[in-house]
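quick one if you have a minute, typing this from the bus. theres a chain ive been looking at and ive put its sequence and its fold in token form underneath. please have a look and point out which stretches look like helix strand or loop to you. anything you notice is useful, everything is just below.

***
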Amino acid sequence: MRKLSRRTLALAGAAALAFIALNLVAYRHAVLMVEFGRASLDRTPSPDRLSAVEKMGVLLSGVSLPRPVNRQAPSEAGLAYSTRSLRSADGTELEAWLITYPGSHGTAVILPGYNSAKSQLLPEARAFVRLGYDCLLLDFRGTGGSQGAETTLGWKEAEDAAAALRDMRASTPGRPVFIFAKSMGAAAALRMAGVLGEQPDAMVLQAPFDSLYNTSARRFRKMGLPGFPFADLILFWGGRHCGFPAREHEPARYAASVRCPVLLMSGGRDPYVTPGDSERIARSLGEHGRLVIFPGSGHDGMFKSEPEKWEALVKEFLAGALHKVN
């Protein structure tokens, strides 16, 4: 009995140490995923670009997430602009670029994805200008010219998006204002409209994740690890660090309360947000949503891979969706 008791205590002690070690590693990973580092850091490549040894190194040390910066001004892309300062609901100061010209039909509020700044969406902004719309490109909190050093992967960013939408509503009363957003930005837009009740006149959304848990678990599986318990621990500690319920972050659920027309785009080769995830969001949107899959596109490549199809699709959608507003 004494030997058994000692063995049991040893096993319990080893299990406790393993549990503590696992949570310490998970906490480090979580903080590194939601807290931006110096802009000069090298970003960790996506899992599909890492060797087995490199994946092991990332699992032990965590990812490197440099602060996203704007590497090009609109003027360098041939677009005249002004810089606007906005304030989110919690007081966070945000920077945006406003591109306008006489005779436009309305305004596109443009929201970037995870670990991205507004300059990365200048190619799409040029397309919207060609289609006849002004553009407001926003830096979310912690990125580009905006205040802060953290990301909540679309949760608090929904308030940032709402601030941009309200600013354009006040600046251009009676004119259409719609959202164009990618990935995390699209998730923030769905939360803005479905939970905060800030409904734009329409939304064009590329690859929003259906839930933060699903997309996190999928990234761990690409690293050769199971989603449980790793995604659970990352979301728990990341949410605690940034002050939001990460496990409850579900854009597919928010979509059920969206009441404006939504064009949803999904990449057939997207390893992080599958067409199945997009179909779940589309079902929640119901009659308000339209899903179009780009078979040859990855997570961020709809406009890059098929610009003519993208532009024709967006033009047709906006003409119908904004017809009553105009």
Notes: The chain has two domains: 1-66+228-244, 74-211+249-321. Strands lie at 82-87, 93-99, 107-111, 134-138, 177-182, 203-206, 262-267, 289-294.
